[in-house]
Amino acid sequence: MEPKSTSPPPPVPVLGAPVGYPPPGVYPGAAAAGYPHAPALYAPPPPPPPAVSAASQQAAAQQQMQQLQAFWAEQYREIEATTDFKNHNLPLARIKKIMKADEDVRMIAAEAPVVFARACEMFILELTHRGWAHAEENKRRTLQKSDIAAAIARTEVFDFLVDIVPRDEAKDAEAAVAAGMPHPAAGMPAADGMGYYYVPQQ
């Protein structure tokens, strides 16, 4: 036989009746979070990320510019040293097919697709390099479409691609506010610390 409780049974809840809050101190830690009567069900929100100083942003942009200059200097040396024009990273037949898509083009010299293949390779390399710089700015190790879109928007030479690879403006605005950078006006590209670098012939 169970011992009988001497306390009265709890009242039956009535729908819509006011509910009293528990007294302070029932839920420790909740008062410290700014809610004296709330249970500590959730951890307090994380502190905001530390603000990136302008000097560190400028140093990062300077480093990226140096990397880009080194990239183009290496490309220039590689072009000058190239003697084998038979091996290509991109398919010449596909390049030739794209060239013939223009109905005005009748004949294509053998060296034209070779030059286009090398130009396309350099274009892809530079765009990847600039996209990778954007990924590193955002502390990521995976190149994403948004990185390529940011590289296009930041580089004036790539303006012809803005409509082909549109940016996600909502994400950009949030990222800019989080980084403490002003958001560019609609339709205007963001300022790029890495300008387009051209190696003049020597």
Give keywords.
single chain; 202 residues; mainly alpha; elongated
What is the quaternary state of this protein? Answer: single chain
Order of helices and strands: HHHHH
Low-confidence stretches: 183-188
Question: Level of helix content?
Answer: 40-55%
Roughly what is the average pLDDT, rounded to an integer? 74
Given the helix and strand composition, which structural class is it?
Answer: mainly alpha
**Rg value:** 31 Å
- What sort of overall outline do the alpha carbons produce when their principal axes are compared? elongated
Distance between the termini: 104 Å
Strand percentage lies at under 5%
The total strand number stands at 0
Number of helices: 5
Main pleated-sheet profile: none
Task: Provide an overview of this structure.
The chain is elongated and about 100 Å long. About 3% of the residues have low confidence. It contains 5 helices and no strands. The chain starts with 53 loop residues before the first helix and ends in a 23-residue tail after the last helix. The protein is mainly alpha-helical and 202 residues long. Helix 1 runs antiparallel to helix 3, helix 2 crosses helix 3 and helix 3 packs across helix 4. The chain is 42% helix and 0% strand.
